[in-house]
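Notebook, p. 212. Picked up where the previous page left off. The plan for this session was modest: take the two constructs that came back from the sequencing core last week, fold each one, and keep the raw output in the notebook itself so nobody has to go hunting through shared drives later. Recording the first one now, exactly as returned: residue sequence, then the C-alpha cell string.
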Amino acid sequence: MEDAAAWMRAKYPSLVQGAIAASAPVWMFPKMLKDSTGPYRIITEVFRDALADCPVKVAQSWDLITEMGKRKTGRKQLSSLFQTCKPLDRDGVKSLSNWLNGMYFDMAMVNYPYPTSFLADLPAWPVKEFCRRTNASEDVVTAIAAAAQMYSNYTGKVECLDLDSDPAGDLGMTGWDFQACLEMILPISSDKYVDMFPDDKFDLESYVSDCEEQWNTTARPFWLKYFFGGMDGFDYSGYSNIVFSNGRLVHGLLEEPRSLKKTSVWRIVPTF
C-alpha cells in the first residue's frame, strides 16, 4: 500500500528524502477513522461521474439478485445471465453478490485512462465502459450482468465466471490477506442510504475473532495508530517532502471535491 511511502518518510526522515503517496489511507484504521462509509461513498461517486444513473441500477440490483436467488428458476436465470461455471445454489448467490461487491471496488481502484491487465483485462476508463453497458437492457439484473462481462471477460476468451477463483490471479494476495487481517485492518462499512452498496456495518470484535481463528495468531488492530501515529491531534503537518494524491483516500473521508479517478488532485505537505 502507498501508506508505506508516507510512513517511511515520517518515521525515518534521515533515510528517506521524500515520498509520493498516491491513494494512501493513512488514517483509515481503527481508532482513527471517524466515518467508515467514506470509501464506498467515493466509489459510488466514481460510478456516478461515469453515468448519472449507473449507481441507481447497481443499488437496485442487490435486492433483486437476492430475491431471484430464493427460487430455483431464479438461480438458474442468474447462472445463465452471469455465465457462471457452476449452477448457482443459495450459497452461490451469496458468492455472486460478494464477487460483484469486489468487482466494483477493484474497478474504481484501476479506473485508469489506459488499458490494464494486472487485476483483469480491462479497457481504458473501465467504470465508464461498465456504466455504458448497463444501458443494454431495461431489466436491472440483465443490465448488470451484461456490464459485468466487461470485467470478467473483456477479451471474450474466458469460458465462464469462476466465483471460486481470484480474478487478480497470483499477485501475492495471501500475504495481503494476512496483513489486512492482523495489522492493517480497514474498518469499512457501507450504507445503502449514502452509497450504492447494501448495508454492511463493520464489527471490529467479530472481524478480529475471525482473523485470529483463520491465521492462528494474535491480531494487533491498533498497532498502526501507536507506531506511526494518527488522528487525535496527530497530523502530517510537522513532516516535509510527502505528497499525498487522491486526498479523499488519505483520510477515508469525503473532504476533497474530486473523485478517485481525478489523479490531478493533490494534498501537498510543505517541502523545505
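Okay, moving on. Second construct, recorded in the same format:
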Amino acid sequence: RSNMPQGDYIDLHRKRFGYRLDYFERKRKKEARAGHKRSQFAQKVTGIKAKLYGKKRYAEKAQMKKTIALHQQKQLKQNADEKLAPGALPPYLLDRRVTSTAKVLSNMIKQKRKEKAGKWTVPLPKVRPISEAEMFRVIRSGKRKNKQWKRMITKVTFVGDNFTRKPPKFERFIRPSGLRFKKAHVTHPDLKTTFYLDILGVKKNPQSPLYTSLGVITKGCIIEVNVSELGLVTPTGKVVWGKYAQVTNNPENDGCINAVLLV
C-alpha cells in the first residue's frame, strides 16, 4: 500500500474550514515576486536547461500575444462612420463602404468554442504510448509451431455479455478470460464518492482505433458506465443510463479498473 494522500484533500479542507488568515496576502506577494524570480533564474541558468527554458518562455509569450489579440477584437475597417457624398453610389462601390463585423463575430465564436472545449477536458490529457510488443504476445500455432499470425492481448479487456469466441482456427486476437473485466470503480468528481458500476462499452482508447474495437482498457481510456443506480437525471427529467468515464490507473497491474466520471 502507498502512503501517498488520495484525492484533493487540500481543497476539501478549505471547503470545510476556510483559508489561513494571511493566505491571500501571501499569495499576492508571491505572485508579485514571481516575475523577479523568473528573471533571476533566466539570467543564472546555462547549457541545455537554458535552451529548454528559453523555448518554454517563447511558447508562453506567443500564447499570451494570441490571447491578448483575441480579446482586443479589432475591426480593421472603420469606413462606415464617414459621411457619404451626395448622390447615389455606383453598384460596384455599394459594398465597399460598409464595415464588416465578421472579425468580431468570428472571435466571439472562437471564444465560445474554447469555453465549450474546456467543459470536456479529461483528467488525463496525455498518456504514455504503448508499443505493439507490449500490448500483444505472439502465439505460435500449427503442428510444427511455425505459424505466428495469432496474438494474445496482455492488457485488460472488456467484452459484452453475449460475446462468443471464434473457433480457434479463425481467432486472430485472443482475449484471456482472466483479464476480462465487467465492472469498474468510478469516482464522481463533485460528490467525492466512488461507485462500483457495470461497464457498458469502450468508447475510445487513445492508443489506437484497433484497441478500441478490441475493447482493450488501458490508462487514459474512455469507457461508458451504467449510472442508472446513481439517480442522475437530464434537465427534462429523464433518467441517465450511460455516462463516460476515464480510466486513471493501469488495470493490468492493479487487478481493478479505477475511473473518474466525466460530468
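Notes on construct two before I forget. Residues 84 and 96 are 12 Å apart (CA to CA).
Flagging for discussion at group meeting.
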